[in-house]
Specification:
Layout: E1 2-6, H1 10-22, E2 27-32, E3 38-39, H2 44-49, E4 58-60, H3 62-67, E5 70-74, E6 78-82, E7 87-90, E8 95-97, E9 100-103, E10 107-109, E11 122-124, H4 128-138, E12 143-147, H5 151-162, E13 166-170, H6 183-195, E14 199-201, E15 206-212, E16 215-220, E17 225-228, E18 230-233, E19 237-239, H7 242-246, E20 255-257, E21 268-270, E22 275-277, H8 285-299, H9 322-331
Parallel strand pairs: 1-2, 1-9, 2-5, 9-21, 11-18, 12-13, 12-18, 13-14, 20-22
Antiparallel strand pairs: 3-4, 6-7, 7-8, 10-19, 15-16, 16-17
Helix pairs in contact: 1-8, 6-9
Length: about 325
């Protein structure tokens, strides 16, 4: 049985690892456009903050794949899919045949379609290259604006503060973390973070960014002009579905799958940030890992479906626990 996996994030890697554990005779090949191997995105803010070195981000090198019996094609991306011939074509022009295909292509960082979003010194944080660019700029910058006050946005802001930058956080909603907290809880969190040096512009929509030399001006719908030396967008993710689209698979925001993680094509599955499970793209590392291990069990005939459990994301800002924030708000 020949299994091809497109993508080497947690869904792809843990699927490959689990398949080999369950069926050692299966041939498993994993393709990744990046040459560095599996790295942990959840610790990128720690890397930006200077708490860890880049080697601590790498979870699986080429040697680790080989030791697990996985054929790793690092630096080789799958760009097209033919579901009739059951083949995929890579960025090198090579054609590979599969018996079963898992698309675990992940997602890219989103930027809103506004003037100036692609200006110099405007970043996102999704890859090691992104992190290195942010670190390089923070060496000379004194101020930063983070656009997006979700979990990652707050963690990015905190990381930049560890590099002695003055950071403003611009958030569309009128209080922090509306997906995790109610308004009262959000206000408690805001006060705690402001005491740590965070600056917030809440209930704001970014309308445009103007760049003048090395300086940036962020304009909002409430007539604010926020000056800074760098900007980091934390505005969610965009599922990577191009391989699925090339093969005519059914897509929405992501690649549409049901509880069996099966796509609209026979013997093609999707898992992780690129998968839209019953209308939902989860976008969490632990969810992608769970889906990868589940789809491995499905592909090898150990189970039929995956029921996604509830997840409680953690805010990784030193000294702040969301459970304590909720308890404090409830006691008021």
């Amino acid at each position: 049985m020949k299994i091809i996996i497109a993508g080497n994030g947690p869904a792809g890697y843990y699927a490959a690892k689990k398949i080999k554990e369950l069926e050692s005779s299966y041939e498993v090949s994993i393709f990744d456009p990046s040459p560095c191997g599996l790295f942990t995105k959840v610790r990128l803010p720690d890397y930006v903050a200077g708490k860890i070195t880049s080697d601590k981000l790498i979870l699986a090198s080429a040697e680790k794949y080989a030791a697990s019996g996985i054929e790793a094609h690092l630096g080789e991306n799958l760009v097209s899919l033919d579901t009739k011939s059951k083949t995929v074509t890579s960025s090198t022009g090579k054609v590979y045949a599969y018996d079963k295909l898992l698309i675990a292509s992940g997602a890219s960082a989103s930027k809103p379609d506004i003037e100036g979003a692609c200006s110099r010194h405007v970043y996102t944080l999704r890859t090691m290259k992104d992190a290195d660019e942010i670190i390089a700029r923070s060496a000379s910058a004194k101020t930063a604006t983070v656009i997006g006050g979700g979990l990652l946005g707050l963690e990015i802001a905190y990381a930049l503060m560890q590099r002695n930058l003055s950071v403003s956080v611009l958030e569309f909603f009128p209080y922090l973390l509306p997906r995790q907290l109610n308004q009262k809880e959000g206000l408690v969190l805001q006060k705690k973070l402001e005491a740590m040096g965070f600056k917030f512009y809440l209930d704001r929509k970014t309308e445009k960014i103007l760049c003048s030399g090395d300086s940036l001006e962020t304009y909002t719908n409430r007539n604010d002009i926020i000056n800074s030396d760098m900007i980091v967008f934390s505005a969610g993710i965009k599922p990577e579905i191009s391989l699925a689209v090339s093969g005519g698979l059914e897509t929405g925001r992501g690649i549409k799958v049901g509880t069996g993680l099966k796509t609209s094509a026979n013997d093609v599955y999707a898992a992780g940030d690129c998968a839209e499970i019953n209308g939902n793209c989860c976008g969490l590392w632990i969810a992608a890992k769970d889906q990868g291990e589940a789809v491995a069990a499905i592909i090898t005939g150990r189970k039929d479906s995956f029921d996604m459990p509830p997840y409680e994301p953690i805010l990784k800002v030193s000294g702040v626990q969301l459970k304590e924030v909720k308890a404090e708000a409830a006691a008021q």
